[in-house]
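Quick log. Single chain, no ligands specified.
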Amino acid sequence: MKVISPRMHGYLDFLTVIIFLLAPTLLGLSQLPAMLAYSLAAVHLMVTLASDFPFGVFKLIPFTIHGWIERLVGPLLIALPFILGFADEETARNFYIAVGLIIIVVGMLTDYQGVARDKKNS
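-> predicted structure:
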């Protein structure tokens, strides 16, 4: 069941950017996890603004592709602490695992076809 509309997904995307920007300070992340969080905030913002959905500015990336990007990013975020060697930092590891799981769940609940249906009906 796809209960998250494209518009609601946009709000969640901006919230994700804010979370990535605040996490290093609020959680006291060390250098690598902090730089990664700032980089992910920038990339997530660029993908959001470039996506073809209600909050997209440039509308270069179809919303379905936006969904596939997130389907890859969620599991990757869970793996990053282990791949990049900061899994022993409990706070950073747990942050990346939690954000990865949230992105997976949001992706499963988002109606990535909603934008295409809205365009057909208008």
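The mean pLDDT is 94.
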